[in-house]
Amino acid sequence: LRVEALERLKEVSDPNALSELKVHYLGKKGQLTEILRGMGALSAEERPVIGQVANDVRGAIEAVIAEKQEAFDREETARRLRSETIDVTLPGKKRAEGLIHPLTKVTQEIEDVFLGMGYEIAEGPEVETDFFNFEALNLPKNHPARDMQDSFYLTDEILLRTHTSPVQIRAMRAANGRTPLKIICPGKVYRRDDDDATHSFMFHQIEGLVVGPNIRMSDLKGTLLQFVQAMYGKNTQIRLRPSFFPFTEPSAEVDVTCAQCGGSGCRMCKHTGWIEILGCGMVHPKVLEYGGYDPKEVTGFAFGMGVERIALLKYDIDDIRHFYNNDLRFLGQFARM
Ligand code: PHE
């Protein structure tokens, strides 16, 4: 048995055959086990002798199997090392890197400017109630100014917000009378416009609101000047033109000096030297009341700007629809800006 086993083991060339032989000789039903099991039938003199021999044989077989197993393991490791070798000289696979959308980028820049002035960022729902979108902003039902912003109504009382101004009311109510309140609110707004180069049924606004004791129009003007100089450069100037919004009084439209021509007149500013960028004003007393403030104790200013408009001007883009078409040739240009 010993000679036969060692002979067969020597010829084994793969791990499967080795484990088969291991079972064959040493397993529960293996040949050696059978011999050892038969020991009971032997006489007292024979037993230790045969036992000794059987144990020697088992030892020898086990040693050879262990040796073989080790050799197979070494081979397996070597084979795996060979097949898993990485050729570090091969050129890497290029991954297409994502980049920030220009509107997101401009929004973040604007946010940064106001965060630097101590403002907090607020948000509100895009599906809004008539109350927050109009009523609380001093636009009662049948007010003609509601037509300024043709709306998408979902029900009689619920619509897609037409501006970010409803967040003014929400932020004031959340502040519970606390002053100063300084927030900006970026977000999507919706209007029933036919899409063209300068209009879109959906676009982005950033609302600003400051409420506190003795907030004045000069604070508004100074804040906006700071802002445009941070966005467009130190030499940028602003001018305020009287305007009308139901939720601010007085109201103004703000122009910046045209960055393209420096004020001398070009295509971009329609040869006026000025470009309109936002609407603003002193918060109407009724709006402060709707927000839970006493207009005899606090005043405030608010402004609202279109992000697309700011971005169009900043990058000299001629069609608002570029922002929504997801053409990578367009979007890719802003990776380096
Ligand atoms: N909500 C106004 C608009 O969408 C902009 C605005 C905001 C004007 C705040 C004044 C104050 O046109």
Automatic annotation (TrEMBL):
Gene Ontology MF annotations: ATP binding; catalytic activity, acting on a protein; magnesium ion binding; phenylalanine-tRNA ligase activity; transferase activity; tRNA binding
GO terms for cellular component: cytoplasm
Domain Aminoacyl-transfer RNA synthetases class-II family profile: residue ranges: 104-313
Superkingdom to which the source organism belongs: Bacteria
Keywords, in A-Z order: Aminoacyl-tRNA synthetase, ATP-binding, Cytoplasm, Ligase, Magnesium, Metal-binding, Nucleotide-binding, Protein biosynthesis
Cofactor(s) needed: Mg(2+)
Location(s), subcellular: Cytoplasm
PROSITE patterns for this protein: AA_TRNA_LIGASE_II (PS50862)
Matching InterPro entries: aa-tRNA-synth_II, aa-tRNA-synth_II/BPL/LPL, Phe-tRNA-synth_IIc_asu, Phe-tRNA_ligase_II_N, Phe_tRNA_ligase_alpha1_bac, Phenylalanyl-tRNA_Synthase, tRNA-bd_arm
Gene Ontology BP annotations: phenylalanyl-tRNA aminoacylation
Cofactor note: Binds 2 magnesium ions per tetramer.
Enzyme Commission identifier(s): 6.1.1.20
Pfam family, one: tRNA-synt_2d
Coiled-coil features, chain-numbered ranges: none
Binding site for Mg(2+): 249
Catalytic activity as recorded in UniProt: tRNA(Phe) + L-phenylalanine + ATP = L-phenylalanyl-tRNA(Phe) + AMP + diphosphate + H(+)
Family: Belongs to the class-II aminoacyl-tRNA synthetase family. Phe-tRNA synthetase alpha subunit type 1 subfamily.
Subunit organization: Tetramer of two alpha and two beta subunits.
Protein's recorded name: Phenylalanine--tRNA ligase alpha subunit
Organism from which the protein derives: Cohnella fermenti
Lineage, top ranks: Bacteria, Bacillati, Bacillota, Bacilli, Bacillales
